[in-house]
Amino acid sequence: MLQDRSQGVHIGVVARSFQIRATDETFDHNLFREKVVVPVKQLLAQTGHLVQKLVIVTNADVRSAYAEEIAADGTTPTMRAVRAAFADDARVEAIACTDWGKNVGSGNALNVGDSYINGTTDLEFVLNWSPEMAVLPRHLYRAIDMMLDRPAMQVVGFYREMWWERTQWNIVQNTIALYRLSTLMAMGGFARKCDGDDGVMVQTEEYGPVLRAGMEDFHYVLRLLRRNREYRHGIVGLEAPLEWHVDFDPQSERGKNHLRKVARQYAVMREWCKDVFPEQDVYETLNQYFESRISQ
């Protein structure tokens, strides 16, 4: 039923992917196939013509400690691998972000991809997605249906496995979130301060002081509420949360970065509450956030 309502609707998809400091010699093609090629092809196969454009943004920022090696033509190993793997599918493109910021999960990389979708298509919706999230078409159709039903709905997130364990997994997160593209562009995308370039630190129990970075998705919804109290955001999949494939080696750099990110998220959320609504208590802001959410 939801698929019938969404017939004729198309979306763009933006994903971030890179291998830390990879060169042509060190680039892991097996990891790339497992973590990027397979989930992207599954998404495209399962959703048919729903996805009109899929953009993979990679780290080509010469100032970034995480960037891949950049060739003379401006491409990186990931960009070349994407072009080879998807040479027969014009929907899939690889583009470079040359201003990644200090956060591994760069919000500005999403800005670059979202702006590219906006500038090259006439699509109404864009899905920011991490290939680690196993997307089910019925969840996508339900999110689109929620957007079509409610003009005030600006973004819809998706419940993930173990969503009940942490506050930050109860909110819209860019691991998978569907945005109304026109509003996203009008808001200037995600705030650059969320990439940690100012060097401000926050305290965590597990790791002590860590960079105040990430949660640009939460900061964005707070900014929406600041702009218009009637705006709404949603979250779907309560009865069937999405699989979340984050079985990284905990001793690898990627695994350590993931654990640090999870540890700091709630502390960063509290900081963004104070940033966007400095005149009120953090818990008042959190209440406002959850009161504006519609869950299915």
Helix/strand structural class: alpha/beta
As a percent range, the share of helical residues equals 25-40%
How many strand units?
Answer: 10
Question: Average pLDDT, to the nearest integer?
Answer: 91
| Poorly predicted segments | none
Estimated share of beta-strand residues: 15-25%
Strand order of the largest sheet: 3-2-1-4-6-5-9-10
Largest sheet: 8 strands, mixed
Structure explained in plain terms:
The protein has helices spanning 2-5, 29-47, 77-85, 107-120, 137-149, 181-186, 216-227, 253-276, 282-291; strands at residues 11-16, 51-59, 92-97, 125-129, 153-158, 176-180, 201-204, 208-211, 232-236, 293-295. The protein has 296 residues and is an alpha/beta fold. The strands form two sheets. Strands 3-2-1-4-6-5-9-10 form an eight-stranded mixed beta sheet, with helices on both faces. Helix 3 (77-85) links the parallel strand 2 and strand 3. The radius of gyration is 18 Å and the shape is globular. The model has no long low-confidence stretch (mean pLDDT 91).
Q: Topology of this protein?
A:
Elements: H1 2-5, E1 11-16, H2 29-47, E2 51-59, H3 77-85, E3 92-97, H4 107-120, E4 125-129, H5 137-149, E5 153-158, E6 176-180, H6 181-186, E7 201-204, E8 208-211, H7 216-227, E9 232-236, H8 253-276, H9 282-291, E10 293-295
Parallel strand pairs: 1-2, 1-4, 2-3, 5-9, 9-10
Antiparallel strand pairs: 4-6, 5-6, 7-8
